[in-house]
C-alpha cells in the first residue's frame, strides 16, 4: 500500500518565508539609510544656506559701517580743514597789520582796535581747542565703527566654522530633540569656510578708499582763494575806513593723510594721500594790501600760510602755526597747547606708529580670478551621523553577513555591520553642502565684488564651484572637509568618472 508523501510544501514555504524576511529586512535597512541620509543632507543644505545668508547680511552691514566710518573720517578731515582755514584768516590779518606800519593813517585806525585783540585771541583759542576735541571725538566714533566690523566678522566665523556656535551645530541639536540617540547627529568642522572669509576680506585698499572718499569733498581737496576781503567792523572794517583793501591771490588749501612730516613752509597744496601716519591741513596764498585812497601808502605783498598737523596720542609732533607773524600777537597755539590741542587717539600697534588712520575690513579686490570666483566666499556645511553611538544590535534589520562573489577565489564580501571585514570603519554618515555669498547689483553685471555697496546675496552652489573645490584639478577642499574614509571614497569616485557634485 502506497503512502502519500507529506511536508514537502512546508519546507518550501519555510525557505520562501526566510527569503522574504531577509528581503524585507534589507529593504528596511536601505530605506532607513536613505531616509537618514536625506535628513542629514537637508540639515547640511539648510546650514549652508544659513551660512551664506549670514555672510551676505554681514557684508552688507559692513558696507554700511564702512560708509559711516568713511563719513566720520571725512568729517575729521573737514574739521582739520576749518582749523587751517581760520588760521589763514589770522595770517591775513597779521599781513594787514604789517602793511599799515608804513601808513600812519591806517595805523591810527587800527590802534583803536588793539585793546580788543586779547579778547579776540582768547575766543579764537577756545574755538580752536573745541575743534581739536571735536576731531578727537569724531575719530573715536570711527574707531567704534571699525570695532563693530571686527566683532561682526568674529561672530560670522563662529557661525560657519562647524563649532558649538555654528548653524550646523544648532540645527543638528534641534533635529536630535526626542531622538533615542541624541548624540549621533552632529556638525563637522569646516575650517575651509573660515579660510574663505579670510581670503575674501584680505584686501589692503582700505586706506586708499578712505583717502579717495575724502578727496571728493572740495573743501578738503582744494580750498580756493576768496579775493578782496572787507568787513563793516573789526580790523578789516578799520582798514576799509581809510581806503585799504586786502586781496588774496593764488590762494588755496587742502587736507590729507601723509607719511611725510611736513611743516609750515613745506606743506604742499593737494598733498598726496600716500600714507596714514599724520593728518594734515594747510592753506597758502599771496596777500596784497593796497590803499587806493592813500597814494602815499605803498602797497605791500606777503606770502601767507597756515598749517595744522595732528598725530596720535603717543607722538609729540603735533603742530599748528600761521605766518606772517607779529611779535606779541601770536603765530601758533600757546604753550603746550601746540602739542596737545590737536592730538588724537593712541596708536595701539607699534609697527604702524605714528598713525592717525582708522582701519577696518577691506574686500580682496586683488583676487580677480574666475578660478576663485573673485574671492566671493564659498561656505561648507558638514553634518555627520555616528552609528557607533547606537551600538551593533540597535536595529534588527542591520544584518551582518558574508558571501562569496563568483567561484572560489574570485573575491568575497564580508559585512560586519559598522566595520568591514578588512577593518575599515563605515559607521559615519556624512552630508556636505555648500553655500556662497555673492555680489550683484541689478543692472551692473560688470561691477566687481566690493564692501562699499550693500548688494550681497546668498545661494546654494556645488562644492566644486571654484578650483579649490574641484578634485579633478587637485582641489583639496572637499577631501579636507569630510576627511578619513569619506575623503578616500570621494577621491576614488571622482577618479572613476563620478560627477555627483556638479
Topology:
Layout: H1 8-99, H2 104-111, H3 117-160, H4 167-176, E1 185-188, H5 191-200, H6 206-215, H7 218-221, E2 223-224, E3 227-229, H8 234-241, E4 245-258, E5 278-290, E6 300-310, E7 319-323, H9 337-340, E8 378-386, E9 401-404, E10 412-415, E11 428-439, E12 456-461, H10 477-482, H11 484-495
Antiparallel strand pairs: 1-8, 2-4, 3-4, 4-5, 5-6, 6-7, 8-11, 9-10, 11-12
Helix pairs in contact: 1-3, 1-4, 1-6
Can you put this structure into words, describing what you see?
- The protein is of the alpha+beta class and 502 residues long.
- It has helices at 8-99, 104-111, 117-160, 167-176, 191-200, 206-215, 218-221, 234-241, 337-340, 477-482, 484-495, and strands spanning 185-188, 223-224, 227-229, 245-258, 278-290, 300-310, 319-323, 378-386, 401-404, 412-415, 428-439, 456-461.
- The chain has eleven helices and twelve strands.
- Strands 2, 3, 4, 5, 6 and 7 form a six-stranded antiparallel sheet that branches.
* Mean of all residue-level pLDDT scores: 82
The secondary-structure class comes to: alpha+beta
Tally of contiguous helical segments: 11
Number of strands: 12
Can you tell me the residue ranges where pLDDT is under 50 for at least 5 consecutive residues?
none
Domains (count): 2
Radius of gyration: 38 Å
Principal-axis shape equals rod-shaped
Percent in helix: 40-55%
Distance between the termini: 75 Å
Strand content: 15-25%
The succession of helices and strands, N to C, reads: HHHHEHHHEEHEEEEHEEEEEHH
Tell me the major beta sheet.
6 strands, antiparallel
Amino acid at each position: 500500500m502506497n503512502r502519500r508523501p507529506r511536508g514537502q510544501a512546508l519546507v518550501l514555504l519555510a525557505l520562501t518565508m526566510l527569503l522574504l524576511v531577509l528581503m524585507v529586512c534589507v529593504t528596511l535597512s536601505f530605506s532607513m539609510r536613505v531616509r537618514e541620509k536625506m535628513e542629514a543632507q537637508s540639515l547640511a543644505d539648510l546650514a549652508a544656506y544659513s551660512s551664506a545668508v549670514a555672510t551676505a547680511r554681514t557684508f552688507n552691514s559692513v558696507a554700511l559701517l564702512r560708509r559711516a566710518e568713511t563719513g566720520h573720517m571725512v568729517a575729521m578731515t573737514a574739521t582739520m580743514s576749518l582749523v587751517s582755514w581760520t588760521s589763514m584768516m589770522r595770517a591775513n590779518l597779521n599781513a594787514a597789520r604789517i602793511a599799515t606800519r608804513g601808513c600812519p593813517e591806517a595805523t591810527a585806525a587800527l590802534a583803536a582796535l588793539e585793546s580788543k585783540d586779547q579778547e579776540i585771541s582768547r575766543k579764537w583759542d577756545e574755538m580752536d581747542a573745541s575743534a581739536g576735541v571735536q576731531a578727537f571725538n569724531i575719530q573715536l566714533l570711527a574707531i567704534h565703527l571699525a570695532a563693530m566690523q571686527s566683532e561682526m566678522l568674529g561672530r560670522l566665523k563662529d557661525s560657519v566654522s562647524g563649532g558649538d556656535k555654528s548653524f550646523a551645530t544648532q540645527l543638528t541639536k534641534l533635529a536630535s530633540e526626542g531622538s533615542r540617540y541624541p548624540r549621533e547627529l552632529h556638525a563637522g568642522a569646516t575650517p575651509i569656510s573660515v579660510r574663505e572669509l579670510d581670503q575674501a576680506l584680505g584686501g589692503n585698499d582700505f586706506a586708499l578708499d578712505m583717502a579717495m572718499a575724502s578727496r571728493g569733498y572740495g573743501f578738503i581737496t582744494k580750498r580756493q582763494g576768496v579775493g578782496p576781503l572787507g568787513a563793516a567792523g573789526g580790523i578789516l572794517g578799520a582798514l576799509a575806513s581809510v581806503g585799504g583793501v586786502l586781496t588774496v591771490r593764488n590762494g588755496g588749501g587742502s587736507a590729507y593723510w601723509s607719511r611725510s612730516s611736513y611743516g609750515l613752509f613745506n606743506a604742499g597744496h593737494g598733498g598726496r594721500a600716500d600714507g596714514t601716519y599724520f593728518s594734515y591741513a594747510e592753506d597758502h596764498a599771496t596777500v596784497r594790501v593796497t590803499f587806493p585812497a592813500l597814494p602815499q601808502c605803498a602797497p605791500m605783498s606777503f606770502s601767507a600760510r597756515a598749517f595744522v598737523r595732528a598725530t596720535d596720542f603717543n607722538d609729540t609732533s603735533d603742530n599748528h602755526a600761521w605766518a606772517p607773524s607779529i611779535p606779541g600777537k601770536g603765530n601758533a597755539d600757546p604753550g603746550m597747547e601746540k602739542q596737545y590741542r590737536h592730538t588724537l587717539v593712541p596708536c595701539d600697534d607699534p609697527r604702524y606708529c605714528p598713525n592717525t588712520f582708522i582701519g577696518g575690513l577691506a574686500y580682496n579686490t586683488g583676487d580677480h580670478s574666475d578660478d576663485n570666483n573673485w574671492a566671493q566666499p564659498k561656505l561648507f556645511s558638514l553634518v555627520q551621523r555616528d552609528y557607533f553611538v547606537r551600538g551593533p544590535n540597535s536595529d534588527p534589520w542591520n544584518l551582518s553577513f558574508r558571501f562569496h562573489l563568483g567561484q572560489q577565489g574570485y573575491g568575497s564580501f564580508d559585512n560586519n555591520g559598522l566595520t568591514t571585514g578588512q577593518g575599515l570603519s563605515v559607521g559615519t554618515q556624512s552630508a556636505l553642502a555648500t553655500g556662497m555669498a555673492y555680489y550683484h547689483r541689478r543692472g551692473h553685471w560688470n561691477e566687481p565684488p566690493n564692501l562699499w555697496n550693500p548688494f550681497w546675496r546668498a545661494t546654494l552652489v556645488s562644492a566644486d564651484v571654484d578650483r579649490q573645490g574641484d578634485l579633478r584639478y587637485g582641489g583639496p577642499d572637499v577631501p579636507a572637509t569630510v576627511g578619513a574614509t569619506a575623503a578616500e571614497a570621494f577621491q576614488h569616485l571622482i577618479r572613476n568618472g563620478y560627477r555627483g557634485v556638479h
